[in-house]
Amino acid sequence: MWSTFFLTDEDGRTVVPGTSTGAGGVAPGGPAQGAGGLAGLMSGRSTFGGNKRRRTTSGGHAMSEAQEGKIKLAFFVAIVGVVLTVLGVGTEFWAELSPPKHFYNNQTCLTTHYGLWKGCTKTLWVADIDPERESCGPAELPGESNCTYFKFFTTGENAVMFQKKTEKNLNVATAMLALFSLFLMVMGAICIAMALSKEILFFLKPASVCFILSGVLVLLSLLVFHQSVLALLASDHTVPLHHELSWSVSCLGCAGAVLIVGGILFLLLALPCSPWQKCLPHKDSSKK
């Protein structure tokens, strides 16, 4: 009596790998079908075909190479916003305060520029200033500079600039908003790294929330800082001052907009199907 062994392929069909008949021949569905069945079983694993990956994420959605490229492009946009935020937060050119250039004497004048952490008083030569400019400055001109860190976060003292006192609560609130926005950027970057390494599209949703909130907080910190500048100017009217927001604020404004755009891009990529791809077939069918 001949013992027969059976294999089952991925379609549920019975495969006889190599049984011999009574006549000594090979039974139908023998070695050829067995090899085909093994090939079918091998092809059922994760393979790479064409331009799309067959690897399936734990959420049940496959990430193609095109999706991965779009995620990396959106991540690059978000990284630009992060770099601009770090540049703006770390520099002290948020605001410039300048009295009239002939307020003290006819040869030198003083100007002050400050940010979240420290302020700098700079002595400029009047001859270097544009004749059409009435106030001292800008702070980019060469001169002797003296910088000191604020004591908002250590002893809680207000800073005094041109006999005017800062409003420490507003300054501290601005710094806390900026730092919390940086924390959200780090969390968003971790989510994107997990999405790319593990190929889990679910991480795009929390990343989009983190980047959008960080952009909103950056813009909100600019509004609070502007209120602190107005409170500083209103604290004393002895010295007339000209104030203007400097390039660090411009960096943060651009950073907030870029971060919000990056978060929206991640949100669109996290959708199961893009809105325009869903609408285009409908338009084509309506034309027919």
TrEMBL record:
It is a multi-pass membrane protein. It is found in: Membrane. Its main location: membrane. It holds the Pfam family Claudin_2. GO terms for cellular component: L-type voltage-gated calcium channel complex. GO terms for biological process: regulation of calcium ion transmembrane transport via high voltage-gated calcium channel. Keywords: Membrane, Transmembrane, Transmembrane helix. The keyword Membrane applies. It comes from the Eukaryota. The keyword Transmembrane applies. GO terms for molecular function: calcium channel regulator activity. The chain crosses the membrane at residues 73-95, 172-196, 203-225, 245-271. This is Voltage-dependent calcium channel gamma-6 subunit.
